[in-house]
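Retry 2 of 3 after timeout on previous attempt. Resubmitting structure tokens to design endpoint.
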């Protein structure tokens, strides 16, 4: 199960930027200025889902910056301590002024556009709409951003990723072609186009672009994940699992790669490749990183439990996945649920 990965350039006011995919993690749960890691006896409350509204918002542990959150990234908040919000998935604190509740995000960015209707302002609202799954309005915003500044390559890139989500790979490829033809030599651009070649059914050309991406940066985890997706499509399951392994070793917070690795370990047609215990471990990691909010990841966890022989948990997680799934994906999960209720595991069809 290879969920779509949207890669986008770092939200910067300049045209060319470096891609940031994930947040760094640290082991200790420390508040800024609290080197001991102890929780002071201050009033705390649980925060809702929030969206990042600042470019490169810093995540802190003690007095150290442990990572940065991308503009429009949705985070699950934990404890609130003064001006700081704890983000459990990355073991770091973010300033509350750098986020807004998800249900107020579009209102925030719309107010910015009314005040300063620039290319950047439309780009930022487009990014927020992508995060909220509002893909068609996001394309409109990105297109307006490009109309106002034809040199805004991040907007062209992100419109391409949004076209992919809308199932329009030809339009997506045209945008990625533009980004690359204008001189961007970054692994993200070639990874994006490689995934689009995969959408178009051309696995050979997909691998060409992904080889370029890894040649530019062999430690670029999304290119390894994308290579895994292409290998999976080609029926090279063992290689796909290994590519996903490399991706999570390079980026331990890469939920998609954890999910896809777990999916193959739990459902591969070849029994020698399956490992129920590891599938549960890796799928649980993916769920933790996504706050147990994504249907496809919960679906993977259910399949993993079934492979491990724990059908009670498989049924439970499959039902949770169905509750969160859209109409397009719900029937497939319901079919798998029926298997788990009958005490059977799900197996992918064998490659021809």
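Retry 2 succeeded. Sequence:
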């Amino acid at each position: 199960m290879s969920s779509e990965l949207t890669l986008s350039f770092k939200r910067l006011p300049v045209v060319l930027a470096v891609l940031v995919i994930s947040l760094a993690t640290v082991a200790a749960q420390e508040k800024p200025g609290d080197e001991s890691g102890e929780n002071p006896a201050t009033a705390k409350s649980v925060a809702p889902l929030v969206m990042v509204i600042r470019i490169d918002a810093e995540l802190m542990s003690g007095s150290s910056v442990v990572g940065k959150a991308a503009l429009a990234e949705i985070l699950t908040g934990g404890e609130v301590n003064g001006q700081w919000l704890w983000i459990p998935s990355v073991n770091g604190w973010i300033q509350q002024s750098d986020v807004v509740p998800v249900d107020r995000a579009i209102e925030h960015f719309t107010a910015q556009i009314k005040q300063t209707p620039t290319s950047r302002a439309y780009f930022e609202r487009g990014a927020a709409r992508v995060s909220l799954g509002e893909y068609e309005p996001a394309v409109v915003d990105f297109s307006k951003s490009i109309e106002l500044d034809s040199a805004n390559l991040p907007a062209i890139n992100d419109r391409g990723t949004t076209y992919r989500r809308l199932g329009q790979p030809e339009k997506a490829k045209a945008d990625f072609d533009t980004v690359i033809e204008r001189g961007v030599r970054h692994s993200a651009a070639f990874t994006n186009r490689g995934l689009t070649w995969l959408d178009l059914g051309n696995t050979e050309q997909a691998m060409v672009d992904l080889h370029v991406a890894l040649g530019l940066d062999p430690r670029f985890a999304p290119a390894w994940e994308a290579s895994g997706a292409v290998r999976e499509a080609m029926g090279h399951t063992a290689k796909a699992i290994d590519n996903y392994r490399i991706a999570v070793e390079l980026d331990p917070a890469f939920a998609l790669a954890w999910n896809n690795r777990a999916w193959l370990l739990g459902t591969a047609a070849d029994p020698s490749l399956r490992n129920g215990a590891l599938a549960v471990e890796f799928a649980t990691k993916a769920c933790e990183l996504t706050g147990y909010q994504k249907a496809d990841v919960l679906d993977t966890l259910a399949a993993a439990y079934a492979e491990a022989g724990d059908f009670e948990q498989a049924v439970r997680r499959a039902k949770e996945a169905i509750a969160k799934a859209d109409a397009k994906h719900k029937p497939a999960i319901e079919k798998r649920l029926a298997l788990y209720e009958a005490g059977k595991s799900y197996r992918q069809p064998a490659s021809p």
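Attempt log closed. The longest strand covers residues 64-69.
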